[in-house]
Amino acid sequence: MTVIKETISRALLPFLLLYSIYILTHGHISPGGGFQGGVLLASTIILVCVVYGLQKAEHIIEEGTSHRIEAAAGIILAFLVVFELFLRNALIATEPVLHLWSGREIMLLNVTGGAMVMTAFIIIFYSMVKEK
Amino acid sequence: MNKPVFLLALTLFSVFLLSMLFLPGFASFDEKISNYHIDNALKDTNTPNVVTTLVWDYRAYDTLGEETILFAATLGIYALFRKYRKKPEKLEIPSLIPKKTKRGAAK
Predict the structure, then answer these.
(1) B29 interfaces chain A, CB cutoff of 8 Å
(2) How many A×B Cβ pairs under 8 Å?
(3) Residue B26 touches chain A, beta carbons under 8 Å
(4) Number of structural domains, chain A?
(5) ipTM of the complex
(6) How far, CA to CA in Å, does B29 sit from each of B18, B25, B35?
(7) Which residues of A touch B71 (CB under 8 A)?
(8) What whole-number distance in Å separates Cα of residue A6 and Cα of residue A12?
(9) Are residues B57 and A78, on separate chains, in Cβ contact within 8 Å?
(10) Mutate to test the interface with A, among B42, B53, B56 (most CBs of A within 10 A)
């Protein structure tokens, strides 16, 4: 039974990770964006924790690190949103419409929002698993 | 309970409830601000996805409020699952100074 889970998750994890990063960074071209990509990124860590146990998941990212990343991403996101008008004039886009940098400041906002949502769900899942 | 706070909350609630009567109908073709959003999103922000421009550009402060709610919810869930520890017991260390009893004799 464990052999089936480990084989399937070993084959599935790289594609899941790559697809979630694609949805995160192409938020201004195709449907998706910061929140959706962040939830998918958290689901990779949750899959590792369900199949391989809590020790292997803690090797990848610990709980204390998640707290600090979430706080830092929150501060950076608040700073970016409040000063968005000045950022839009400073980061001038010279690419046509369907490039990755054509959204100017939206790429930074998507990445920061995705990091915050990912660490939020990792904290929620770890606190539920660690309770006895 | 608290009289002024209760009256303030009641007036705000009634104002928001009555303002719903003046909104346009469900599928009406009046002049709304969403028409401006749909027509000018590509010109203003150079991105083809209108939903992303609404979330991060035109209504960015609402997204900031959403992130604050998410942060508060995560902290609340983490605080609910913590285990409480008992206070550590205190050991009584016997001192070298002898205690005096009532009649003056040392203990």
Answers:
(1) no
(2) 81
(3) no
(4) 1
(5) 0.86
(6) 22, 9, 10
(7) 70, 74, 116, 120
(8) 10
(9) no
(10) B56
Q: Write the pLDDT tens digit of every residue in A1-39.
A: 889 999 999 999 999 999 999 999 998 888 988 899 999
DSSP A34-102: HHHHHHHHHHHHHHHHHHH-HHHHHHH--HHHHHHHHHHHHHHHHHHHHTHHHHHHHS---S-TTSGGG
* A121 touches A71 (CB < 8 A): no
Nearest to A117 by CA among A129, A106, A127, A109: A109
pTM reported for the whole predicted model: 0.78
Amino acid at residue number B76:
G
Question: How do residues B38-80 score in pLDDT, each as one tens digit?
Answer: 888 888 778 888 999 999 988 999 999 999 999 999 999 999 9
Q: Residue A9: what residue type? A: S
Give the residue numbers spanning the domain of A48.
Answer: 2-130
Q: Distance, in angstroms, between A14 CA and closest chain B CA?
A: 27
- For chain A, the residue count is 132
List CB contacts of B26: < 8 A, sequence separation 6 or more: none
b/e burial code for range A91-108 (CB count within 10 A of at least 16 → b): eebeeeeeeeebbbbbbb
Rounded to whole angstroms, the Cα distance separating A67 from B75 reads 10
CA distance B37 to chain A (A): 15
